[in-house]
Design brief:
Helix content is 49%, strand content 19%. It is α+β, with helices and mostly antiparallel strands and 727 residues long. The chain folds into 5 domains: 3-103; 151-272, 2-Layer Sandwich (Beta-Lactamase); 277-351, Helix Hairpins (Orthogonal Bundle), CATH 1.10.287; 355-493, 2-Layer Sandwich (Heat Shock Protein 90), CATH 3.30.565.10; 523-724, Ribonuclease H-like superfamily/Ribonuclease H (Nucleotidyltransferase, domain 5, 2-Layer Sandwich), CATH 3.30.420.10. Helix 1 (3-32) packs antiparallel against helix 3 (49-89) and helix 18 (651-658) packs parallel to helix 20 (684-704).
Length: 727
């Protein structure tokens, strides 16, 4: 029986017993009297009936007070203490029972607190031993996370159902090219890429299921026939028109030479080859145009030359005509070759990558190259040894060597000096000499013409090299010391060093992997029967212009993040401000702190809601007071064309399920009850994070109450009083 109904029942029973206690003796006395005396008895009792009733009422109030005191002291208080005891045992181990109720209950609460202290001491000791034993395993695990995160190759690992269980940072960035509209992405992963890449999400949102299934069949066939580690490759296109080359290798269930090895997943290594294919196609077209277009010219030249050789006594006017043909055709060939070189130079520039290297190493290489090829003496003036640059070292060395050679040829410079320094996000490389200044016209001509130095020619110009680096070339003169110098501005780079101390911390790496997903298979219609700890959730919150969506209030911010396998994935978040196309109410601004200037110019709900819907695909929605947020979403279904028909769990209702005897179930009170720190209250993402942490702490309490599956949680929520609230 619910404890709330016990008190009125006890009071009613007590009053009934008192009434019976007072009425039964009178009835007995009445029955024992002879008939002739009953009239006298009635005359005796009737004047005193008011006193009897008063005594009964007073005794009823006294009895009711005693029952109420007994109920509060020994029924309601123990129920609340029991809920807090379960809370202390599971979700918030730092919580302690208050010393309330009778002396006996206070003694019991003190004993429970003392046992909790002993438990915490023992638990800390056990956890210390576990941490010591797991140090090596965690170190290897985090090194794997570091390796995968920093690999320049895009890597994605999936189970047989196509669910992503590992990806690295390179893949996360590259997936942004896979969406229909890469430029229209909201914050974090919430835009295009977040709807495609994430732990537990399906790889088939990117690649055709039949294509991956065919590749798996090839891997299985090669595994059975060849016996070695098989690999297969395929090329596919994305919805954005990108060409992706995929190398696919299996993840085997057993190792070694066991012939019964089975594939339980696969590794996909992705390369975007769109630019390479375009460059190669363009190069082939250029070569084809050059060869096909040159055939007729070469044939004409050959015919003219052969005629002149075969007929040495040919008339002078005919010889002149043949020479004119040779001259014209050679001119056509020259123009065609110049056009080919110019076009192919663009392809060369597009292919060269930028690399990170120490600036001092670059200058040392420049010294060796200039002294060996140009014959100019070089020296180092001042160099910041901590400067790393991100450059195409080959083309940049060509540019520096070219400058030194032009200084030698045009200004007879025999000594150049180098300086290296940093300035914000750029590095300054100075080529210094003593002597004449370079005019603006001269420098412009040097920048425009292809670089030639020491018999070596390249189709690149100085301007091409600087454009490739996103930098500039300046000329400066220091009249005080009679020195001039070129300043090359190139990108500054920070070396990526591995911090071994950080690797020992679980929080040091982004959560890009979850190998437990190897055990996860599709549940289909049986999703309601899955355990709460096995489900993928999207925990979200909204900020709005007001509290009444039916009266025109609008969403101005959505924040969300995902829970996979009981882990809160802060890296996979969605956060986006929304322009409501209406003025914000001053009273709402005071609550969420979002001003009109912050939302003006942001995407509208028609753009953001489909992105959020993709982010929520194949997940269960979780929110606090979800009826409020869902009402706002449902009001926009018709205008945006998306429908949120996923299952929904509400931490407000679940709090009433696990703590039915607690009076407050606001987000702040629940967070305090569970020991969750609130950061960023009344921001959509901040509230979503708090809600997610509370929900994770509720799952074991729900299990202790016999609520383990999604269906059971939804049914229990619907029975609470708060489920009747409508918006």
């Amino acid at each position: 029986m619910n404890g709330k109904f016990k008190l009125p029942i006890f009071i009613a029973v007590a009053i009934l017993l008192l009434a019976l206690a007072a009425g039964l003796p009178l009835a007995a006395m009445w029955g024992d009297l002879p008939l002739e005396q009953r009239g006298g008895f009635a005359d005796l009792v009737t004047p005193r009936i008011g006193l009897v009733v008063l005594i009964v009422v007073v005794m009823s109030f006294v009895a009711g007070g005693l029952v109420r005191w007994f109920y509060l002291a020994y029924v309601a208080t123990p129920l609340k203490l029991a809920e807090q005891l379960r809370l202390m045992h599971g979700a918030n181990s730092e919580h302690r029972l208050p010393l309330v109720g009778g002396a006996e209950l206070q003694t019991l609460a003190a004993a429970a607190n003392a046992l909790a202290e002993q438990r915490d001491t023992l638990r800390d000791d056990v956890e210390a031993q576990i941490r010591l034993a797991k140090t090596s395993v965690e170190e290897e695990k985090n090194r794997l996370g570091a390796l995968m995160s920093e690999l320049t190759q895009s890597v994605v690992v999936c189970n047989l159902e196509g669910r992503i269980l590992l990806y690295n940072n390179r893949a996360r960035l590259q997936f942004r090219a896979f969406v229909d509209d890469p430029g229209n992405s909201s914050g974090g992963l919430g835009g295009g890429s977040g709807a495609l890449l994430g732990l537990g999400r399906s790889i088939f949102a990117v690649f055709d299921r039949a294509l991956v299934a065919h590749a798996l069949e090839n891997l299985q066939h090669r595994l059975e026939t060849a016996g070695s580690q098989p690999v297969t490759n395929f090329v596919t296109t994305t919805r954005a028109g990108q060409l992706i080359r995929v190398q696919m290798a299996p993840v085997l269930s057993t190792a070694g030479d066991d012939p019964n090895r089975k594939i339980n997943g696969y590794v996909m290594m992705l390369d975007n080859i769109t630019r390479n294919v375009e460059n190669e196609t363009r190069r082939d077209q250029i070569l084809q145009q050059m060869t096909e277009g040159s055939r007729s010219s070469l044939a004409s030249i050959r015919a003219a030359v052969e005629t002149m050789i075969d007929y040495p006594d040919i008339e002078l006017n005919q010889r002149d005509r043949f020479l004119a043909v040779i001259r014209d055709e050679v001119g056509v060939l020259s123009v065609r070759l110049d056009e080919t070189v110019s076009s192919y130079a663009d392809s060369l520039k597009a292919r060269w990558p930028l690399e990170e290297m120490l600036g001092s190493d670059l200058l040392a290489a420049a010294q060796r190259r200039i002294e060996a090829r140009v014959g100019v003496t070089t020296k180092i003036d001042t160099v910041d040894a901590s400067v790393w640059v991100k450059v195409d070292s080959f083309s940049l060395l060509q540019a520096i060597t070219y400058l030194a050679s032009r200084l030698q040829e045009d200004f007879d410079v025999r000594l150049v000096r180098f300086r290296l320094s940093r300035a914000g996000r750029l590095a300054h490389i100075d080529v210094v000499w003593s002597g004449g200044a370079v005019s603006t016209e001269t420098l412009n001509s040097w920048e425009r013409e292809p670089m030639t130095m020491a018999g070596e020619t390249t189709p690149l110009t100085l301007r091409d090299v600087m454009d490739r680096h996103g930098g500039e070339l300046w000329f400066k003169r220091d009249s005080a010391i009679q020195q001039a110098y070129f300043r090359l501005l190139v990108p500054l780079a920070v070396p990526q060093e591995l911090d071994n101390t950080a690797l020992l911390k679980n929080e040091s790496r982004p959560e890009y992997y979850d190998f437990d997903l190897f055990k996860w298979s599709e549940q289909g219609d049986a999703n309601d029967e899955r355990l709460l700890g096995e489900i993928v959730y999207t925990v979200f919150d909204t900020e709005t212009t007001g509290l009444d969506p039916s009266q025109g209030d609008e969403i101005i911010q959505i924040g969300a993040l995902r829970i996979v396998n009981g882990r809160l994935l802060r890296q996979e978040s969605f956060e986006q401000l929304i322009d409501p196309r209406t003025a914000l109410k001053p009273e709402s601004v005071k609550i969420h702190g979002i001003s009109q200037a912050m939302v003006d110019g942001q995407p509208g709900i028609d753009k953001v809601l489909p992105q959020f819907h993709r982010f929520c695909t194949d997940t269960v929605l979780v929110a606090h007071n979800a009826a409020f947020d869902m009402r706002f979403l449902q009001m926009k279904e018709e205008s945006t064309g998306v429908r949120f028909d996923q299952p929904v769990l509400d931490t407000l209702l679940l709090s009433a399920v696990v703590h039915p005897n607690q009076e407050e179930h606001s987000l702040e009170v629940i967070a305090e009850r569970f020991g969750v720190t609130i950061i960023g209250r009344h921001t959509a993402l901040g509230d979503a994070i708090v809600t997610a942490e509370i929900f994770l702490k509720m799952i074991p309490l729900l299990a202790a109450s016999g609520i383990r599956s999604l269906r059971e949680a939804r049914e229990a929520s619907q029975k609470t009083y708060f489920s009747r609230i409508k918006y």
